[in-house]
């Protein structure tokens, strides 16, 4: 997955910093390989095969507290 | 301004009251670009908390795929505040990532009073908007699908109109 993001950065400069910082995926971003959230696999080390579908969605969260920062 | 069917407002309030004191959350899908909330989808709050909500990432993927396949988008993203006023918190602002969505907050603590409120949240800036509750969207025909009335509450299609409400119009 890390390699995919590096390749995307070459094609679409700037996209990498929208997706990750300090070598990690932003906290409020979900990245899926096929049906699986990479957080529950091997994160950015999750392997990606030809034909896999990658989905990137902003996480939806919030609430009346001040706990997420 | 958010224009929304009264039955969708009722369904959000009902869900928030049922889940109180836990925060509730969900999304209302509508046809892309049409600005009309149509299909209410309650979401699981994986935070299961009185002061936080978070969509289940897997369920979110499923729902977002469904919307994409249907040519829909998330028109409304809603959640409840169970111990505070209906105004976006720091967490709400931090996590608001859909500049086109209407962020609706449902207060369930009578001490904070008031009804639901709707906001646009873009790059950290919050702008409240008025909510116009209607019985039917302008230009929509009355609906033949009353036989679906008993359908599952999780998917709340805009089609549950009775003969009498069908005749009302938002133009009144």
Kindly identify the CATH topology of chain B.
Cytidine Deaminase, domain 2
Biggest chain pair contact, residues each? A-B, 20 and 33 residues
Q: What sequence of helices (H) and strands (E) makes up the elements of chain B?
A: EHEEEHEHEEEEH
Residues in β-strands, percent of chain A: 25-35%
Helical residue percent of chain B? 10-25%
Query: What is the CATH C-level name of chain A?
Result: Alpha Beta
Task: Describe the protein.
The complex is a heterodimer of chains A (69) and B (172). In chain A, 17% of the residues are buried. Chain A has two helices and six strands. In chain A, the strands form two sheets. A three-stranded antiparallel sheet of chain A has the order 4-3-5, with no helix packed on it. The model of chain A has no long low-confidence stretch (mean pLDDT 92). The two termini of chain A are 26 Å apart. Chain A has one domain (2-57): Ubiquitin-like (UB roll). Chain A is of the alpha+beta class. With 172 residues, chain B is an alpha/beta fold. Chain B has a single domain (2-166), classed as Cytidine Deaminase, domain 2 (3-Layer(aba) Sandwich). Chain B has four helices and nine strands, in the order βαβββαβαββββα. In chain B, the strands form two sheets. Chain B has a six-stranded mixed sheet. A two-stranded parallel ribbon of chain B has the order 1-9. The longest helix of chain B is centred in the N-terminal third of the chain and has 14 residues, at 6-19. Classes of the chains: A alpha+beta (69), B alpha/beta (172). The A-B interface holds A 28, 30, 32, 35, 37, 39, 55, 57-69 and B 23, 25, 27, 43, 47, 49, 51-55, 57-58, 60-61, 64-65, 77, 79, 81-84, 88-92, 94-98. β6 (61-62) of chain A pairs antiparallel with β4 of chain B.
